TrEMBL record:
Gene Ontology cellular component list: plasma membrane
Protein name: ABC transporter
Residue ranges annotated for the ABC transporter domain, each copy included: 6-248
UniProt-listed CDD domains: ABC_Mj1267_LivG_branched
SMART domains given in the database record: AAA
TM helices/strands, residue ranges: none
Keyword Glycoprotein found: no
Alphabetical UniProt keywords: ATP-binding, Nucleotide-binding, Transport
Organism in which the protein naturally occurs: Thioclava dalianensis
Top-level taxonomy: Bacteria, Pseudomonadati, Pseudomonadota, Alphaproteobacteria, Rhodobacterales
Amino acid sequence: MSDIALQTHGLGVRYGTFDALSDVNLSVRCNSVHSIIGPNGAGKTTMFHALTGTVAASSGRIELEGRDVTRASDDDRVRLGIARSFQVTSLFPELSLRENLRLAAQGRTPWQALIPWRRAEASKSVLDMADAVIERLSLGHVATRAAGELSHGQQRRLEVGMAIAARPRVILLDEPTSGMGIDDIEGMKTLIRDLGRDHTVLFIEHNMGIVMNISDTITVMRLGRTLVEGPPAEVRDNPEVKAAYLGNMITGDIA
Ligand SMILES: Nc1ncnc2c1ncn2[C@@H]1O[C@H](COP(=O)(O)OP(=O)(O)OP(=O)(O)O)[C@@H](O)[C@H]1O
């Protein structure tokens, strides 16, 4: 069996007459941490939109574990296992952290998602899943606290947890450390790196320290195209990548 979780072949997205993505070939290995970087306007967000079905591909193909999902709806892609992290704004602020995770875990089966308020009858597997994610997030000490009362950093971790709880095949994280203080960044970095041991994570990130430190593979985009895809050391030393950043140093320690 192939070890590729998510792949695009010649993927293109057009906005009117503008090619936001052209001929993108992306290959995300199972159980790896894969980052997408590139200057502003490179097409990173458009790539996420295309992978999740928020925008339609104008050309090319998207495959999830070898299955063509190019024309699948965004809902179907979630069902098939492409999870994009929830935003803080989509957490249920009055419910506890644990209840939020329980709802996310239930969402996996449509009939369960239709009756999310069956608190007393929540199945053991759903509760077990919520507890396993809480442990993973190292948020056991605030598990019963309302999501709206958590710190910003804790809420951002919960967003990632909501994605994990649905047992996805691939987790997409859009700038998971944006707006975070230095302590929270460290925690998020550890969380993503550890997730890569048994999950497939694709994330967009501007913080080069994190990208270089925890990525197994980096895809560099520029002007809607893939410039380079490879391990951190190879990417950092690539002259085209340096040029794409117009002299801005690509720094960061490589693990
Ligand atoms: N809905 C849209 N209609 C027209 N052009 C768009 C639309 N959305 C994005 N674009 C353009 O597509 C290009 C790629 O944008 P995108 O947001 O994917 O880049 P990005 O790499 O995520 O940038 P950033 O790092 O600034 O978030 C940009 O030139 C942008 O102006």
